[in-house]
Amino acid sequence: MRFPIVVLLVLLCFSTTLSQSKPIVEDRGNFGLHVVDDWIRRHKYLEEKNQLLIIGNQHLQLLDLSSFKVIETRPLNLPYRDLRGDYSEDDWTISPDGSRMMLLGLYEGRTKTKTENKQTAWVIDLQTEKRIASLNHPDRIRSATWSKNGKTLMTMDAARVGAFTRTLNVSFWDGETFEYRHSVQVENVTWIYLSNDGERFFAASGKSKNWFGIKYVADSDSVVHIWKTRTGELEKTISAADPKFQFKTREIEISPDEQFLLMVKKHKSASSEHRLLAWEINGGINPIYELRPQPKIDDSHVEFSPDGKYFALDVGKDLQIYETATGRLKVQLADVELPSWGWLDNQVLASTDFKSKNFFEMGKILKAFDANDGRLLFQQRLAYAEGKEYRCCNTDDDGMTIVTDDTSIRPHPTRKIFLTSSNQFAKIFDSQTGELLQTVVHPLIRVDLTGKITMTHGKTVASADWSKDGKTLYVFSSNHRSVSLWEVIN
What we know:
It is a single chain. The protein is mainly β. The protein has a domain at 252-336: Thrombin, subunit H (Beta Barrel).
């Protein structure tokens, strides 16, 4: 009788999970490049148009997330084979409106030879596939970023900023006409930021140091520069040099409304003297307030609430929440750590912690706390798994540990619910209670003759997210061929 009982229990659980009485989203169809026997290489959500752009190996598809219809599916020929070995297609940047793409790291044509020592970057029109601009510049263009509004294009001669980035050359271009504006050079760079409107560029600089012959950049004697991208004018310089303090410029935070800049400076000998400084970006070079929380600032990172009105700061075993504009302490939460994930909404803090890694407990735990009193609202296990990756034909290889499954968290724009997605599941939860409201994607359950439960489809989900208006959920399949659209009905 063991097998029928197990089957019955599994079917009951399966039915309960998939058939909530009040679903949050409703399936509006399966879309993607399976219709042209192609696979999805990348995608981009176009916020202003509420559209989803899908780019495949040989095709492009554009979906309207308001009407749940395909706008177009057509052939697209991108020069993937012409990529140099030190670049990847991930270096190609799509404009915010989805009309253009910046191509980096290409050989000229298919000759496999470089015409110049520097690397030219091309902009193509995704509709016509024609080059509409060539960004010739003395500096190598290694990476490119459009501002959020698409008005400014920023290029750099480095793929990213790290501890060994000694000199960074940054150039600014008109994001629509691609006319060259200005360039700036940042020495010993530790942090950069391009404003959403593309009008300002922020960069922090530290001091070059040497550790047993290895040169690196430290936070010592830090300064923060703010440039105007249209004119190249240095708008202001915030000096953070202080012989008694170590400024944590790599963990500078700018508020969501881009009105405030926060930075921690840690005392070199007395931890109780650690300070947090806040500047008004449109104000002067002096901080608008300076905080010295007790017993001490522990983690120098801060977390802003989604609306930017508050920020959370780690003070050892406790967590303090302050008003961003005034620096006034709102509440101190006892025995609450700085959230490793962030805020689920303006009232709920969330952390993801690893459980002890044994056979039964390996994974992550999501914990949610009330931001007003520190109460634990709920906790739940998140999918997480590791595995070994081995090099082919190497019998001495012990394998490299890699993450084979992880969980992404995506709060809904209303912040009342949130989505979790892993390789196998996409689920919707209540942000205040943690209650499971709907399982959107679930592999089929099979029970073998021994009663063992398995998932017949294995990996099911590649990624998932909400549209900006909160009316649509899109879930990409792990086979990289399709995307399902779901309409929010509650």
